[in-house]
Structure formats: C-alpha cells, structure tokens
Design goal:
Layout: H1 8-12, H2 16-26, E1 40-44, E2 47-50, E3 55-58, H3 71-83, H4 93-103, E4 110-116, H5 119-134, E5 139-142, H6 151-154, E6 170-173, H7 186-206, E7 213-216, H8 232-242, E8 246-250, E9 275-278, E10 289-294, H9 295-304, H10 315-330, H11 333-353, E11 358-364, E12 367-372, H12 383-395, E13 398-399, E14 401-403, E15 409-411, H13 420-437
Parallel strand pairs: 3-13, 5-6, 5-7, 7-8, 8-9
Antiparallel strand pairs: 1-2, 2-3, 4-10, 9-10, 11-12, 14-15
Helix pairs in contact: 3-10, 4-10, 7-8, 11-13, 12-13
This protein binds pyridoxal-5'-phosphate.
Length: about 450
C-alpha cells in the first residue's frame, strides 16, 4: 500500500497497517513494547527515528553496543561478505583473528572458545558441557531469571512465563539484595542466603541430581538489578565447586564493558568461572554468541562430541565481532561507561531524594535503574506508575523499559556510545516525567 492509498484512519493511527500484517504473519504473541507499538525505521549512534520522522534517544538498547548503524561494523561485515563468508569447516584467518582478540580480553585459564549464534545457544552449550564434565544434572539459578529460549533453558526459567514446569533438577535461589535491608542486617542476609544455597545443594544431592552448575547473570538484571552482599558470589562458587559443580557466568547483559569497571561482569566479584557465555552486544546486532572456557573443558567436550554449528563464527560474524572490539578500544568505551555511570548514579540519587516515587538507585556503569514506588510513601512497588512513566518517556522522546519481579525497576541500558550530553537529556526528562506523576 502506498502512502497515497492509505485510508484516513490509518493515517491517524500510524503503524496500524504494519501491525495488522505482523499479527497476520508472526501472530499476536511476539512481544512488542509500548501501548502503541513503535515503528522504528533508522538509527544512528544513540538516536532512532520512527516512521513518522520523530526522533528518540535510545536509553534502552544494549545490542547496538557501539551505536546504531555503526559504519565501522557495517563496513567490516560488508567487506567480508564481498570477499568470502562460509561455515567454519575451512580455515579462515578472520575467524582465528577474532577468537584471539576475544580471548585476549580474558585472564587466567579462560583460553578457549566455542562460537554460537545467540545467548540461548551459548547457555545451552555451557550447560551441556557442565553436565558432561560433572556427570551431574542439577542446576542452581536465581528465582527470577532468564537465560534463553531452548527447552533446557525453559526448564530453568523463573523470570518469565513458560509452559515447561521448573525441572526437578533445578533449584531456584533467592538472591540477596542489599537494597532490601538496612546496612546492619546485611551480614545476617548473607548468612541466610548462603545457608539457602547449602540447602539447595543438599536437596539436589538427596534426589540424585547432584550439582552440575550455578548459572547466573552478574548484574542480576532480570531480577531488577540486585546488588549482592560482598562474599555472596564467591560463597556460592565455593559451595558449588565443593559439590563438584561448575560456575557459568552469563555475560549477555553484563559483558563487553557494560559495568564500566571491567570487561566481564564476573570480574566484579574477584572470582573466575569455568564457563562464560555471551551474545547480544557482541556483533552490534549481527547474530553471534560464544562460550569461553578452559582448554581442559573444551578438549573433554570436543573429544566426546562431534560438535558443529553451521552459521556460528562465520567470517562475516567474526568481522562484526572484531569491529566491535576494535571500536570499543579506539573509543575507550569501557572507561567512559565507568565515568558516565558514576555521574548518572549521583544525579539519580538526587532525583530519588526529591521524589516520593523513587525507592533505591540501582545498577553499575551504563546499566542503571530506579525502583518506582507508590505515591503514598509506603515504598510499595508501583508497576502501574512504572508503566505510565515508560509511556510518558516515549512521548518525551526517550526510550527506556522496566524489569524485576514487580515490573517496577526502570531499566536504562543505552548503547555504550552514550555521552554526558545524552545522559543529561535522559535525566532531565526522567525528572520531569517523575514530577508529572504527582
Ligand atoms: C541474561 C540473558 N541470557 C541469555 C539471553 C538469551 O539471549 P538470546 O536472546 O540471544 O538467545 C538473554 C536474553 O535476553 C539474557 O538477558
């Protein structure tokens, strides 16, 4: 349908026609943000343009890590496609070059990798490696998490709706959050939480599953950006390892310098997992993921499985990944995320003090949030108000979202090329939007 043939009602309700066509093909269940879904037609850096020409600041998307339509990434993929793009059963220097560059960001024993096409595939493979290595099936996860969409991952999904019941081999853990208690009560919270881990492990052992892995997102982002007490993650790791299990750090959200202090989220805790999984920002939108692990685990898995993945780690995907790493380094994006994150956090603290609707300020680096509470001062989570804020921010030209078990934690996780001038726009609009609630 051309613009000229559109009916008056379609003109008045932009996006209605494409929405109907989407429902008629993809069905109505594939999630869409916003009451009136947003049709985005182009992007550049941290800016997005919709079909009506309105411009939005992207305060939400982490996949375009080095910016929307980044020319360096686009050019790298294009040049590679013009040269050669094949699966990985032939030698190709681009793939090895990328593997070396990515592994160069790790320390210690993490010196091998498997390339995948997504975060889900990476987690699926990591769990398979852990099961085979340990001979156990039990998995510990947080009680409000998401790690992907395969069958095995659906069986351990606690943070969104899935038909599969929680696997009998899965034990969800309540993750301690220092935001939820007074400072003096943190040691008791830590003690209780670690004794919950002991109980979960004992229960897995008693039912014959044993422990294969603890799978966690270091930022606990689906959970609402929790802040765990010092000693929790290493405490869990020690217990899991004593039971023969491995640690899988899911870096889909926290990796690639997002925390501003280190390339990988697990580095916040001063421990090293046996398996690290990643995806989303890795190819700036080109589908690529990975499992980084030890030589011992890769060799063991490789010797026992003819593992092959057609598209994963193709030269074009590797070119995308390499361009992301180079751009990050050239622009010093991780350090910038650290500094800007501190600035944003300080301003959010001030905003929180001035608003009855803000509980705590959460997050690290360029992944930050505030929890929205009811206007009566009761600090009750306010999902309804949170939704109103997100819709209002969209009207103000800023895209953000929300997470957490009560759906009341604002999720702000912009591309890493976000600058202070962008942060100022976001914060100013957020303050106005919060003000409009009362
Ligand atoms: C922490 C985490 N792990 C894994 C995944 C799954 O990644 P993908 O959608 O690339 O399969 C997601 C997706 O949102 C995620 O947030």
């Amino acid at each position: 349908m051309t613009t000229e043939t559109k009916t008056q009602s379609q003109v008045q309700q932009p996006g209605k026609e494409i929405l109907a066509r989407r429902y008629a093909t993809l069905g109505p269940y594939s999630p869409l943000f916003y009451e009136k879904p947003l049709e985005l037609v182009s992007g550049s850096g941290v800016w997005l343009t919709d079909a009506q020409g309105k411009i939005y600041l992207d305060g939400y998307n982490n996949v375009p890590h080095v910016g929307h339509a980044n020319p360096a990434v686009a050019d790298a993929i294009y040049q590679q496609l013009l040269t050669i793009n094949l699966h990985t059963r032939y030698l190709n220097n681009r793939v090895v070059e990328y593997a070396e560059a990515l592994l160069g960001t790790f320390d210690g024993a993490l010196e091998r990798l498997f390339l995948t096409n997504s975060g889900s595939e990476a987690n699926e493979l990591a769990l398979r490696i852990a099961r085979q290595h340990t001979g156990n099936t039990g998995v510990l996860v947080s009680d409000f998490s998401y790690h992907g969409n395969t069958t095995s991952l659906a069986e351990l999904t606690t943070g969104l709706t899935v038909r599969e019941p929680l696997g009998s081999h899965v034990r969800p853990l309540r993750i301690p959050d220092t935001h939820s208690v007074a400072e003096a009560d943190v040691p008791a919270l830590l003690k209780q939480s670690l004794s919950d881990v002991d109980a979960a492990i004992a229960s897995l052992q008693a039912t014959g599953h044993g422990v294969s892995a603890f799978l966690f997102d270091p930022l606990f982002s689906t959970e609402g950006l929790l802040q765990v007490p010092a000693g929790y993650i290493d405490g869990v790791a020690a217990r899991v390892r004593a039971a023969g299990g491995l640690i899988i750090s899911d870096e889909v959200q926290s990796g690639f310098g997002r925390t501003g202090s280190a390339m990988w989220g697990y580095q916040m805790f001063g421990m090293e997992p046996e398996l690290v999984t990643m995806g989303k920002p890795m190819g700036n939108g080109h589908p690529i993921g990975a499992v980084v692990t030890t030589a011992e685990l890769l060799d063991e898995f490789g010797q026992n499985n003819m593992f092959f993945n057609t598209f994963a780690g193709s030269p074009a995907s590797s070119a995308a990944g390499l361009a992301v790493l180079r751009f990050m380094e050239q622009e010093d994006l991780m350090a910038k995320a650290g500094h800007l994150g501190e600035y944003i956090r300080a301003r959010l603290e001030t905003i929180a003090q001035g608003s009855v609707n803000v509980g705590s300020v959460r997050g690290r680096g360029l992944f930050f949030g505030i929890d929205i509470t009811e206007s009566d001062g009761s600090r009750t989570p306010a999902p309804g108000l949170t939704k109103i804020l997100i819709e209002d921010m969209r009207e103000r030209g800023v895209l953000i979202s929300r997470v957490g078990p009560h759906d009341n934690v604002l999720k702000m996780r912009p591309p890493l090329v976000f600058g202070k001038e962008h942060a100022d726009i976001l914060l100013e609009q957020l303050e106005l939007s919060l003000g409009s609630l009362s």
